[in-house]
């Protein structure tokens, strides 16, 4: 398990305030200061510096933080593994909405058929929240579509999917559409900020010197099914991954909008904390889920 001083250090990193860290840990503020000074003496470095009244991590502090987060994650993973020894196998992971709803049903069905005793927990959330839950030790790994810091997380490309502009057949475009810029006059139906699908759309637009704010009208929604239903009803145009709209495309409820800049593709990534002692186990799970 983690040294209590490392726990104190992580609490200070979380709050960037010695007093609030003390309240979080239910200890005194002098005890927090003592724990931090002990770590600084042990490693012969400064971990925090004040700039005015604001507390900041030093470069050494950032390095210790990155390592300590992985250590805490592995300590919690080890605790759970020891409790499960000789019993049922447990699996805790996360997936972004597109991955969880449209990519994982097949792999999970096969996994559960192979291991009927498996205790499975899959949480669906946006990439940012999933990374936070990995850092807190709540999840072992995640499969995401959004950006992540490759210095903090190790990742493997799980699959590559086409990212399609789609609309209802007969959608009344105000002008002929050949390029991305020709779409700016339409009503765009998009995921909310922070979602992986939204981030990918923003990067696609940025690559063509455009932004979501350039669209004439924007509606932001947190549900893929609601976006699809509105698009099928001719309310607007949207960008979604092919598995999300495959059924609607086959049924003729939606059609792909051909653009000269396309096709757009994006990798879904299987990731975990870099430096984890359980990396071999996560790589094995990656292979199982990709079968």
From TrEMBL:
InterPro entries: LysR_HTH_N, LysR_subst-bd, WH-like_DNA-bd_sf, WH_DNA-bd_sf. Belongs to the LysR transcriptional regulatory family. The keyword DNA-binding applies. GO terms for molecular function: DNA-binding transcription factor activity; transcription cis-regulatory region binding. Keywords: DNA-binding, Transcription, Transcription regulation. Residues 1-58 form the HTH lysR-type domain. PANTHER family: HTH-TYPE TRANSCRIPTIONAL REGULATOR (PTHR30126), LYSR FAMILY TRANSCRIPTIONAL REGULATOR (PTHR30126:SF91). The keyword Transcription applies. It holds the Pfam family LysR_substrate. This is LysR family transcriptional regulator.
